[in-house]
Amino acid sequence: MSHYLKQISNLLFIIAHFPVLLVAAALEYFSDSKMGVYRYLVYKNRVFEASLFTKGMVTVYQYLLAAGVILGLILLLWNIFKGGKKEIRQQEALFLLANAIGLYFIFIVSPGQLAAYYFFLMGILVVVTLRFLRLVVTGLRSVPSK
């Protein structure tokens, strides 16, 4: 029974990533061909710039993602040198990758380059959070019970 629960939880974590990023990709794709989608994105970009993505909040997101990269790198190196489980190393590497992609979006990609920039950024932040939860769940599963 435990094996099935593990497979189901793995599947749910994988499936949870796709809708968030798929919505952002669909909005970006349709922003070129559908005027209503583009108007919606312009409106939402203004709303997000005034609420969720002010200069101060973007700085907070930068520090959180940078801390995630550092934490992921430390955990990954520690697990490699300690000879930990391969599954945990994979989760740590994916967590590190998600944080690095988030930092890339904040530092390199500008809001003018993508119409759905803030949707992509929110999607990446959700994926980072899910990756962190997955890392914690995987780590807790590997702790031996007394």
**Ends distance:** 21 Å
Oligomer: single chain
Q: Can you tell me the number of structural domains?
A: 1
SS class: mainly alpha
Work out the radius of gyration: 18 Å
Helix content: over 70%
Strand and helix order: HHHHH
Mean pLDDT: 82
Tell me, briefly, the overall form: globular
The helix tally amounts to 5
Largest sheet properties: none
Instruction: Report the sheet-strand fraction.
Output: under 5%
Question: What's the number of extended β-strand segments?
Answer: 0
- Residue stretches low in confidence (pLDDT < 50, at least 5 long) are none
Keywords: Membrane, Transmembrane, Transmembrane helix
Transmembrane segments: 12-31, 60-81, 93-110, 116-137
Description:
The chain crosses the membrane at residues 12-31, 60-81, 93-110, 116-137. Keywords: Membrane, Transmembrane, Transmembrane helix. There is one protein chain. The protein has 146 residues and is mainly α. The protein has one domain (17-140). Helix content is 84%, strand content 0%. The protein is built from 5 helices and no strands. It has helices at residues 2-31, 35-50, 55-82, 86-107, 117-142. Helix 1 runs antiparallel to helix 5, helix 3 (55-82) runs antiparallel to helix 4 and helix 4 runs antiparallel to helix 5. The protein is globular. The two termini are 21 Å apart.
Q: What's the layout of helices and strands?
A:
Layout: H1 2-31, H2 35-50, H3 55-82, H4 86-107, H5 117-142
Helix pairs in contact: 1-5, 3-4, 4-5
What would you say about this model in short?
84% of the residues lie in helices and 0% in strands. With 146 residues, it is an all-alpha fold.
